[in-house]
Specification:
By secondary structure, the chain is of the alpha+beta class. It has one domain: Arc Repressor Mutant, subunit A (Orthogonal Bundle). The protein contains six helices and seven strands; from the N terminus they run E-E-H-H-E-H-H-E-E-H-H-E-E. Strand 4 and strand 5 form a beta hairpin. The chain is globular.
Length: 153
């Protein structure tokens, strides 16, 4: 309850805040290790120690926390392979696997900023690939000035 200048009380009604698509994505995967965990799972299921070995510098407690978070958000599923002690292998859900495209875009962007980084390349010929936006309704490539104004503050 809030009191107005006239002394009458009224209940504050707040409208739910809209969350942008980027805010939602960052809430699910926007920390230092989560996307690297997802990337490690793109080739198929892995056990905890396999993930830990694949990511130099990642502490076991941080990996546990990230895997629990990814399970909670529905991006990873843990399947037990041992009851005593409890051990699991981790695999991406269909939704988690959809992050592969976003990871490729981030890798492409990262390679542009670092001359020593290896860009995403075409396996058949070895040429670095370029990301493009495509409109399936118009059946054509779309330039960035033809899309929604996606600026995030």
């Amino acid at each position: 309850m809030a009191t107005t200048t006239s002394g009458r009380q009224h209940e504050l009604v707040s409208e739910p805040q809209q969350v942008t698509a980027l805010e939602e994505a960052v809430a699910q995967v926007g920390d230092r290790w989560t996307l690297l965990v997802v990337n490690s799972l793109l080739d198929g299921p892995r056990r905890f120690n396999e993930l830990l070995e694949a990511m130099t510098g990642l502490a076991p407690n941080v990996l546990s926390k990230r895997l629990r978070h990814l399970e909670t958000t529905g991006l990873v599923v843990a399947t037990p392979y041992s009851r005593r002690p409890p051990r699991f292998d981790y695999r991406l859900t269909e939704t988690g696997a959809e992050l592969a495209s976003a990871l490729r875009l981030l890798a492409h962007w990262g390679a542009e900023g670092d001359p020593n980084a290896v860009p995403v390349h075409h396996d058949a010929c070895g040429t670095p690939v370029e990301a493009r936006w495509y409109c399936p309704t118009c059946a054509r490539l779309v330039e960035s000035d033809e899309t929604d104004d996606t600026r995030f503050v």
